Amino acid sequence: MDAALSTVDPTVITPLYLQVARFIAQQASGGGLTRGAKLPTERTLCAQFGVSRVTLRRALAILVDEGVLESSAGRGWFVTTGILGEPPNALRSFSETARIRGLTASARVLHAESEPASLDDGDAFKIAPGSPVFRLKRVRLLDGVPVACDESRVPLGLAPRLADADFTVASLYRELENAGTVPVRAEYAIEAAGAEADVARLLDLELGSPVLVAQQTGYGSDERLIELSTTVYRADRYRFRASLHRPFFLKEAP
Q: Closest by alpha carbon to 2, among 38, 47, 48?
């Protein structure tokens, strides 16, 4: 972490806490900090980065939210063990989450074609049956390691050039954004399951190994349905996190 001395520049626009967070994330993804490694003490880190403890703790809190670090009361800060986790209440693409973690996202494309909308797709997307729907199916990899299989469906009329994109490296959300439409909120449901034969083969798992199956519906700023997707994650490489708040009407009276 000694290289930190030359990575934080108070003269640039990027806030210091984000510079600190970015450097630690890079170190945790192959730059010198191994999985499970303990970070130096906060006092040492403040001295190395030349920042206040308030700035440092803001950076560390971001990294905990992003799943890069874990904190242990009285023991310090540790690099997580390699499980990818989405921050609570944040809608991000797989590629965006990987980039923030300092990892390289890629894909093996299994299917990327326009197909006529089924009756169910027509009802969901409010389009005529038979209208073109782009279906994308991929194996998602982080630093070359398979982590998930996903399948997404998007009305092609929203982004006519989707079929031209190279989704081995391209982000679906980035392509949608370039077309002027991208989900701004999503409904998300996740459940545990056993890996079926095709998923087990694609994710290098034993048949029946635990996986997490996520169903997502993504909506635009006008509340129009943009995307339907199903993602199957390796349970040993993905963590789902959420922020829960107890409703005020359930609080017990003193």
A: 48
